[in-house]
Amino acid sequence: MKNLLFLFLLVISFNNISAQTSKPKNNSSVRPKSSDDVKKDNRPVRPIEIENLVAEAYYLPPEFAADALMRLAKSKKVTDKQWKKELIEAAFRFAAEAQQPTRRKNANLGTYSVDTNSGYLSYAFGQNLDKLSLQNRAVKMMLDLDKQRARELFNEIPAKLNLSPLSCDDALVYDVSEFYDTLRLVAEKTFSSAQIEQGERMQFLLPYIEAISSHAQIVPALKVVVAVKPALSESLILVSAITQSLKNINGDDRSFSYELVRGGMLREIFQLAQTLEQYQISSQSLLKEYRAYLQKNLNDSRCADSAINNKAVLSAVLRDSNSFFFTTISLTEDDVKPDEVLGKAKVYEFWQSAKAKRLQTLIKELRFGSKTESFGDEDENKPLIQAEKLTAEWRGQLNQFLNELEDWRADDERSAIDYFHQKQVIYMALAEIVPDKATRTLVVRSWLTSLDDASIEKQNRIEWRLYADYLLKFANNLAPEERAKTLEIISSSRNSSLVLYAKLTQQQL
After folding, report:
1. What would the pLDDT profile of 474-494 be if each residue is shown by its tens digit?
2. How far apart are CA 76 and CA 83, in angstroms?
3. C-alpha span between 381 and 328 (Å, rounded)
4. How far apart are CA 125 and CA 107, in angstroms?
């Protein structure tokens, strides 16, 4: 009876979720099959503990569900190839509903600390839990199981990415390198020699090159064209599409400056030019268009904190670029006169409020002692040894710190998410400092309570997950007995995402 009830709930769960997400006309391959289904098909029995985890995953926020299902698909306990494919396909569907559409990364403006709202958001994006990253992860996993199906899934991702121009307020830029790396793999692994000769691979690649609309796409797209080692006929068509894209892209100095100075754009243009020369095709048309692209965008509106404003940086860019223009006219600094200089990125430093500064000072005293001369440079200070942290004095400092931490409120900070980031960093440091199991258990329970905040998980999923993941990694690195106890505590959380991730950690997934 329990098995029948479980199967009924599992099917209902899938139907509810799939109604909210896009799916192919025939969605039977997405539905997880039960142990009874597998036995009838004469396939390996599906472990009930894994089936239970799959069922729980279906109730998580979409990006967590997608991530969990792909972790399960990689499990050694999932030996049935068809089941792996079903889990990956389901993950692909969930990924479409992820809160963040595209990964972003720090623009490395050079004038800000990493302890900022944008710096920590960049760390959160590094988990690759955005829609595009998750879908590409699913496609790559499917490539190892079913190449044709992997290409079909990739074809469901629109060739034209929604990368609206950034403003100078933005401190993060787009990172679509994973998308183009997946495009490369699909192009390399899913076309036979005969299909390549017939032009099918070129027809597959061409829409993705023609759809380039952002500076952020140029470098990864160039890498694809060079990496697939295109035939002569493919090269002519693909390079023509790239030069047309260079003509069409303008504006968005934030993205342009990053790709030009730090993204390796010139290097990739050079690689493509070399590829053309290998076929005895003149690269002058490509280089001429690149020069025009440079001049057009260097003279567009510029952000006040753009790296290209530095004269030394600009001189280096022009010098290196001119070395590739052979018979064309060189660009000089006199050719670079931006229309206007706009504002700077809106970046907010952490640890600025009175309470945040106070807690930061106290946590450093707990780590290094109250006689530390410079709290800002941990390399110059030796952490307290275990014996020093077992004294009554240190315990008194810890109690004082915990009381002040308890009194700290979101209203004390610029925003709830800024408060959340700083408080999580405090817990990360505190968990590493405390000297004994009993105190660590108290810290973990308090940390867990702070992560139970449903509003943060709902509104800022990848940022919430950043610290949930850190807590689980911390627990997983403890000695076996303490590890088991700590993961058991996390498994008792009121937060279903934490509960499932704790179970996956227990299963070494």
Report:
1. 999 999 999 999 999 999 999
2. 12
3. 57
4. 13
What torsion, rounded to 10 degrees, do the Cα atoms 381, 387, 390, 396 define? -40
How far is CA 35 from each of CA 39, 72, 273, 465, rounded to the nearest angstrom?
6, 16, 56, 31
Rounded Cα gap, residues 33 and 78, in angstroms: 12
CA distance 265 to 259: 6
State in Å, rounded, how far the first CA of the chain is from the last one. Answer: 30
Q: Which two tokens stand for residue 504?
A: 């996956």
Across 436-464, b (16+ Cβ under 10 Å) vs e yields eeebbeebbeebbebbebeebbeebbbbb
Q: Give the separation between CA 418 and CA 163, rounded to whole angstroms.
A: 26
pTM, two decimals, is: 0.88
Provide the residue type at 242 as one letter: I
Q: Is residue 296 exposed (0-12), middle (13-18) or buried (19+ Cβ within 10 Å)?
A: middle
Rounded CA separation 357/121 (Å): 21
